[in-house]
Amino acid sequence: MTDLPHTSPEKTWHALVLGRAGLDLYPQPDSGKISDAHGFSADMGGSGGNIAAAMGCVGAKVALLSAVSDDAIGHFVRQRLEQYHVSDAFLQTSQGNSRTSLAIAEVRPTDCDVVIYRNDAADLQLRITDAMQTAVVNSNNLVVTGTALISEPSRTTSLELMKHAKSNGCTVWLDLDYRPWNWPDLQTTRTIYSLAAKYADVVIGNEEEFAVLTDQLEDYITQANLPTKRQAILLKRGGNGASLFNQGQRLDTGVYPVKPLKPYGAGDAFLGNLVHHYNSHHDWQAAIACGSAAAAIVVSQRGCASAMPNAEQINLMQQSTTMKPTANWC
Question: pLDDT tens digit string along 32-43?
Answer without folding.
Answer: 999 999 999 999
